[in-house]
Write a structure and sequence with these properties.
The complex is a heterodimer of chains A (278) and B (426). By secondary structure, chain A is of the alpha/beta class. Chain A contains nine helices and eight strands. In chain A, strands 1, 2, 3, 4, 5, 6, 7 and 8 form an eight-stranded mixed β-sheet that branches. In chain B, 71% of the residues lie in helices and 1% in strands. Chain B contains 19 helices and two strands. A two-stranded antiparallel ribbon of chain B has the order 1-2. The chains are: A alpha/beta (278), B mainly alpha (426).
């Protein structure tokens, strides 16, 4: 699109690692934050050179208490097949799974990316994943975890918190979310290079980045604001369901290191696919 | 006639006569050839639209795509100066400063043209980790010229690593065996020999074997199910046969995606198949049929059954029942008559049906994607992943090429053993 010089869109939502890669590849506009909002008002890591944070979402563990008699207390219970036998669903992607594998293997959250940047760390993470490989059902699309839980195909699943909350609130499913050891990520929004209405795009980015507007999204799907000063604007009934609600940050949690995934993502994806196929 | 006269029955005359006859014969056969040629041209003309369509929409795209498996000029186009500087490098260790300077100049050029990312991606396919290193170097070069540019490149340790320059040099050759070797889990080692890739990176041989195993299992299953059914349809009264044929064909007319989705409903943990197995007490617990090899083979067998059954049925229909009776009347026991009279006649149909199913199974994509688990993905799933997700068309082309060669080889063996003229497809 950018290469052909015909850019029919002015804004695009992207994952953080993709923002970094797109920035390097020169297909995303470097943002002028003076036209958006003060950069220091964003949660760290959610205001990037080529993309501004839209919301914060959590990679969490979900289960059905009518199926699991004992409640898991941490996402890392994925790796405990003696206490929680049965199939578990995980995203068919190395990010998050490798982090959880290392943490389940005893690496402190603060050291996860340091360890994962070494070849031995990668081997260690895959070894840990090996221990539950035969019990994993892989999901690709965000709607699948709730389906897999509902059809009782799996006893627990990793998921994006909003999808599970949606199944609980709208479809009245009895699912429960485990926040301990969640991984926090941000949805980003970028301007592709060569967009025709850059100024309008900036106006939109400025609008959604206003604290009260940034907080509004939480009323529609339970993803949290990325501005540090937006919490007071969040609707009271939505607040306790957000991944970055104070209660959910009391336990262990990890903020996804997007720079790490921008650098190592491609190789780890390849390695992961080879591991999957073996 | 003069030839009959005894005086002229000597050798020279005979020879002269024979040559005259030869000339006649030659002109006749030439005329015949001309007529045949005209006929052939006319039929070729009639078939021309189809042939042109086939060449344009089938032949050329396949050749173009497959050529990407061995022809990849991205790096050569991006690093012309470096390629030249590497011309007199002995291939040991790290080349001299002239290569670094050429690389700096090339990288700056790429940055100006906006092709740095293409280069980074292409080099990354050969040398994992290269993507971010190339881009990092390009960023450093933004504010460096002349000797500073040389230092900027040298300050990135990646360019002094022993594995970097051989990969660059092999990349600057547009004609490459890299992708075809990768498709067979092989690679060039530092000494210029071919070696196997480390076990944690080896996938494709295993996936090829898996693809052939699944295809063979499905073929066998369709044969075991299809042969008796085809026999039944061929030997019941016409009305009943018509109903049975429709029963076979009805699912055949349904989209393969719909049939696959239907199997996911049936095979899931709390699906009908598991309910039934529990009810009749075959299993004591719910079994995992979804995301498993067995579920995949069940679904593929169902989808492929008509392809095996129909050629067998079409051959069986032509065998008169009286032949078996004749065999009995000559004293053959039922099994002997079946083996020596029936089987040889239906054999071409059986082989045609099995080959059809086997070759179609080699290309299965959607059913393994939806029903198979991570370790049940077939080679097509990998080709699709390289085309759609990783945008590495060279690798996709190489895998396709290997699959095509294997398939053609099997077809060749089959044609050799049975003879193509005996094939009876319908």
């Amino acid at each position: 699109m950018v290469e052909t010089g015909n850019v029919p869109i002015d804004l695009v939502t992207v994952e953080t690692a993709t923002v970094l890669q797109g920035c390097d590849a020169g297909i995303l506009e470097r943002l002028d934050y003076s036209k958006i909002a003060p950069r220091d008002k964003f949660i760290q890591g959610s205001a990037l050179d080529c993309g501004v944070g839209l919301d914060a979402y959590g990679d969490i563990l979900a289960y059905d208490p009518t199926v699991l008699k004992e409640a898991p207390t941490s996402v890392l219970d994925l790796f405990d097949t003696t206490k929680f036998p049965g199939k578990r669903a995980m995203r068919k992607f190395p990010a998050q799974n490798l982090e959880w594998a290392l943490m389940a293997d005893g690496v402190a959250p603060a050291d996860v990316y340091k360890v994962l940047a070494t070849p031995e760390g990668v081997v260690r993470a895959f070894k840990k994943l090996d221990t539950i490989k035969k019990d994993i059902v892989w999901w690709d699309a965000g709607a699948q975890p709730a389906q897999l839980l509902a059809s009782k195909e799996v006893v627990m699943t990793t998921a994006w918190n909003g999808r599970i909350q949606n199944a609980i609130d709208t479809d009245k499913k009895p699912f429960k979310i485990v926040w301990n050891n969640q991984i926090l990520e941000y949805d980003m929004i970028s301007i592709p290079k060569g967009a025709r209405n850059t100024e309008l795009a900036y106006k939109y980015l400025a609008y959604i980045s206003e604290p009260k507007n940034n907080a509004k999204l939480a009323s529609y799907i339970t993803y949290g604001p990325v501005r540090t000063d937006a919490a007071s604007f969040v609707a009271p009934d939505a607040l306790p369901k957000l991944p970055n609600a104070p209660d959910h940050l009391k336990g262990a949690y990890l903020v996804a290191d997007t720079e790490f995934w921008g650098d190592y993502g491609e190789d780890l994806v390849k390695r992961f696919n080879a591991w999957l196929a073996q | 006639m003069s030839a009959l006269q005894p005086s002229e029955l000597d050798r020279p005359t005979l020879a002269r006569d024979r040559s005259a006859a030869d000339t006649d014969l030659k002109s006749v056969s030439a005329a015949l050839r001309r007529a045949e040629f005209g006929d052939r041209m006319r039929s070729l003309l009639l078939a021309a639209p189809l042939l042109i369509l086939l060449v344009l929409s089938f032949g050329i795209p396949i050749v173009l795509l497959l050529s990407r498996a061995v022809y990849d000029p991205t790096i050569a186009d991006a690093l012309p100066k470096t390629a030249q500087a590497l011309g007199n490098w002995n291939g040991q260790g790290v080349p001299g400063d002239d290569a670094f300077a050429a690389l700096a100049a090339d990288l700056k050029e790429n940055q100006a043209k906006g092709t740095a990312y293409e280069l980074a991606k292409s080099l990354n396919a050969r040398l994992p980790g290269a993507r971010s290193q190339v881009l990092k170097t390009v960023r450093k070069l933004e504010s460096a010229d002349g000797p500073a540019a040389l230092d900027a490149v040298k300050s990135v340790p990646f360019w002094s690593a022993p594995s970097t320059w051989p990969a660059i040099r092999s990349g600057t050759r547009s004609l490459t065996s890299f992708y075809l070797l990768s498709a067979l889990d092989l690679r060039w080692n530092a000494d210029g020999g071919i070696e196997q890739v480390p076990p944690e990176q080896a996938i494709f041989i295993q996936v090829f074997l898996r693809t052939f195993f699944v295809a063979a299992s499905v073929t066998l299953a369709t044969l075991i199910l299809g042969f008796p059914l085809a026999y039944l349809i061929a030997n019941v009264p016409k009305g009943l046969a018509a109903i049975l044929i429709v029963a076979v064909l009805l699912p055949f007319w349904t989209s393969i995606l719909v049939r696959t989705a239907a199997w996911t409903v049936l095979l899931q943990k709390f699906g009908l198949v598991n309910d039934f197995l529990l009810l009749i007490g075959v299993t004591s617990d719910r079994v995992d049929l979804m995301y498993s090899r067995i579920g995949l083979i069940i679904a593929m067998t169902h989808i492929q059954l008509p392809f095996t059954l129909l050629p067998i049925y079409s051959v069986m229909r032509t065998i008169p029942a009286s032949q078996m009776k004749a065999a009995y009347s000559l004293g053959a026991r039922p099994f002997t008559a079946f083996r020596r009279v029936y089987i040889p006649q239906v054999f071409p149909g059986v082989m045609a049906g099995c080959m059809l199913t086997f070759i179609l199974c080699l290309g299965y994509y959607i059913t393994p994607a939806l029903i198979g688990g991570a370790s049940d993905q077939l080679i097509s799933n990998f080709i699709a992943n390289y085309v759609n997700v990783e945008l590495n068309w060279e690798m996709a082309a190489a895998l396709s090429f290997i699959l095509l060669v294997f398939t053609l080889a099997l077809f060749g063996i089959f044609a050799r053993v049975l003879g193509l003229d005996r094939l009876k497809l319908v």
